[in-house]
Amino acid sequence: MRPVPILLYHGVADEASPGIARYTLTPRVFDAHMAHLVDAGYRALTVSELLVALNGSPEQLPERPVLITFDDGLRNFLTEALPIMERHGLSSTLYAATSYLGEGDAPGVHASGDPGLAWSELVSVAAGGVEVGAHTHTHPMLDTLPHAAARAEIVRGKELIEQHTQAPVASFAYPHGYSSAWVRRAVQEAGYSSACAVKNAVSHLGDDPFALARLMLEAGHSMEDFRRMLSGDGVRAASSGDQLMTRGWRLARRGLAAGHRLRPGR
Predict the structure, then answer these.
(1) Which of 14, 38, 42, 228 makes the best surface tag, with the fewest CB within 10 Å?
(2) Dihedral, CA atoms, 199, 200, 205, 207, nearest 10 degrees?
(3) Domain extent for 46
């Protein structure tokens, strides 16, 4: 099956707070990534464009496909990342956690304390051709929440983005990459047609449309690491279902989350 690398970025900035620095690339490094994609003959698709190929039209897939996705909705997506991608002629998908967005023209606040997009800026980004997907409202680990709370998070992010952009939201990204069979079902029932996980694996035409594998780029990755990820060298192909280790880690996180919710004063 032809590999389809789906890249996951969070922030692009020369400086970032400690809470997000690990996931923030400098503009120079990000520009080098984008230049390499173009030089190597990759064609960037949005997640919904990939879905057309996944749903039975593989001929729609270019010879060297790649997807560029951003999570959270940091303001430097607009000020740093988007101008670089536009200069290289590359499309992207942005997944916004709606509680991080500021009212009207006011910048929002990311969980790290770094600036988030204003709602007006997200609307402008969507109008400019970026695919905007939902990333819940408050960015929780959905598979640790009671079902009603998880469902509310899944639905609210979609509804808020659609209200502001006046356009349907078709794609979703699981906060922290965590999901479960029930969470994936709830995302589908909420009206999404695709959803991204993380997995640090290479996607392909046999991947699960509601658990698409992505490769997360971090500040500590070298340019050689980036090239290896794209080529699939030393990177596994996406598999379906939850791994045993994933299920065990979920149980541990649920226990921690339950203890946190039951703590006096909460």
Answers:
(1) 14
(2) -10
(3) 3-240
